[in-house]
Amino acid sequence: MKIYNIKIVVLALCTAVLFVQCADDDDNGNVIEQELCSDGIQNGDEEGVDCGGSACDPCIAGVVDFSGVYVQEDIMGRPAVNTAFGGSDPVKNDFNVSLVSDRAAFQPIFQETLEAYHDVYAIALGIPVEDLDYETNILGLDAATFTTVLAQFDALQVAPNAPTTYFDGTNVLTGRTLGDDVIDISLTLMFGGTTGTRFDGNNGTPQLTSDGVDIGDRDLTLPFPHMESPLTQ
Amino acid sequence: MMKKTKIFAAIGGLSLAALSIFLISADHIDSPAVAGTKVDIADLYAFEADNPNNTVFIATLQGPLVPGQVTENAVFDEDVLVEFNIDNTGDFVEDLVIQAIRRDSIMYFFGPSEVEAADAGTSSTVYVNDGIGQVEISGVDETITATNNGISFFAGPRRDYFFFDFNQFNAVADGDAAPDGFLPPGQASDFFESLNVLTIAIEIPNFLLGTPPDHVGGLVGIQGLPRSYNVWVETKRKQ
Questions:
Q1: What angle separates helix B2-10 from helix A106-125, to the nearest 10 degrees?
Q2: Where are the alpha helices (DSSP H) in B99-142?
Q3: Which backbone phi and psi does B16 adopt, to 5 degrees?
Q4: Would you say B126 and B80 are in contact if contact means Cβ atoms under 8 Å apart?
Q5: Other Cβ atoms within 10 Å of B116 Cβ, number
Q6: Of chain B's two ends, which shows fewer C-beta atoms within 10 Å, N or C?
Q7: What are phi and psi of A12, to 5 degrees?
Q8: Contacting residues for A110 by C-beta, under 8 A, at least 6 apart
């Protein structure tokens, strides 16, 4: 108890000295702030020792406990890759804990799934599955190459010095905006063939390249963080 | 022919199962191990900021959340680290990470931290010496952002920006929609139009991300694409 009292006195003295120094100084307020933010004590409106409040840097380490080891449970690069091409639950679980740089084993699975989608629709249409295969897409990627890009290079490509679009007909894979129609783009790459119009609902074909919905009434003009407040009903 | 027979045999099981949950969302409602948990990533967005010298990264989680109590009660898990990974050398191994994790009512941000080779991979620790800022987590009726040294932060519930006619897709997948497929605009319905997600957003100056590598498109014959980082997001649970 006695030691505690002494500490209080010392702390009070130190603080008093600090303010006297500042008061004697004809410098501007910034100097006072810097002194306060490196004096080793929590004062002013600081939220921790020399951190937080109106003058100091935010409190990060040393005040809050961030210790421990954190292990991967989910991962995402481009939209829809694992859910669309994983094929089975065990594969999807494996994908979510895999490294992007170690995905060669997923490519043949993805390719098989891609072909299976076509077979499913062939059956629905009552035509032999042999007659309905994936066709090289508008990016010029055959099935093996397309699924290699999906499996082994699964990241969003983000160009810091170019307009952002997932695909706008001209530019491609420079990021993903909130308004990009990633479903229609994915469907077109999967079912659109070389022209992008292979199964677009015209000329007696099924509509498989667009789901018919867009961003709707979501506001794309908002400042950071750019997304609307949550809906309440 | 053998291959076709094999696929045909699988159609009744594996492939239809795959189709039935195909693209439920970009990554919403994920595989069984993560579906419905607080590590479940819904979507990743990365785009040029209003200030073209900056890039915005957005991760959405735990979607879809129904408006009302479900959204109001949704919280970020203090044991879940959200990590934006940036490869700026083109080998698809992270060179920089930006980390975000909740403590009480605050979302704390760290990075971009250089990742030592030994630390790359599925395990991480928080780069506690690289704190770059924090923001109070917004409630359903508020939008609280913070900016520190030119970096902006947000965490909280938002409307889901993912859009998809999920119900019609199920009809397509089941063959019920043959031969027409998806519905035309006006008849199609966006399943996610009235749903929410939890969101973590950061806007950061590009110079903090290093020089981007050649675009990966060049590896598969797509030439002329601008230099681009390779970016992905991970959720990692404390052991």
A1: 80
A2: none
A3: -65, -35
A4: no
A5: 7
A6: N
A7: -65, -40
A8: A85, A86, A87, A147, A150, A151
Torsion angle of the four alpha carbons A184, A187, A192, A195, in this order, in degrees rounded to the nearest 10? 40
Cβ within 8 Å, pair A176-B46? yes
- Pick B31's closest partner by Cβ from A92, A149, A175: A92
The two structure tokens encoding residue A82: 């694992």
ipTM of the complex: 0.89
Average pLDDT over every residue of B45-59: 97
| A4 contact partners, CB below 8 Å, separation of at least 6 | none
Which of B80, B108, B181 lies closest to A60 in CB terms?
A: B108
In degrees and rounded to multiples of 5, residue B61 shows phi and psi of -135, 160
What are the residues facing A34 on neighbouring strands? none
Mean pLDDT of A180-198: 96
Amino acid A49 reads V
The beta strands (E) that lie in B49-195 are given as 54-65, 80-87, 96-103, 106-114, 123-124, 131-136, 145-148, 151-159
- Cα–Cα distance between A170 and A176 in angstroms, integer? 15
Q: Which residue of A has its CA nearest to B134?
A: A58
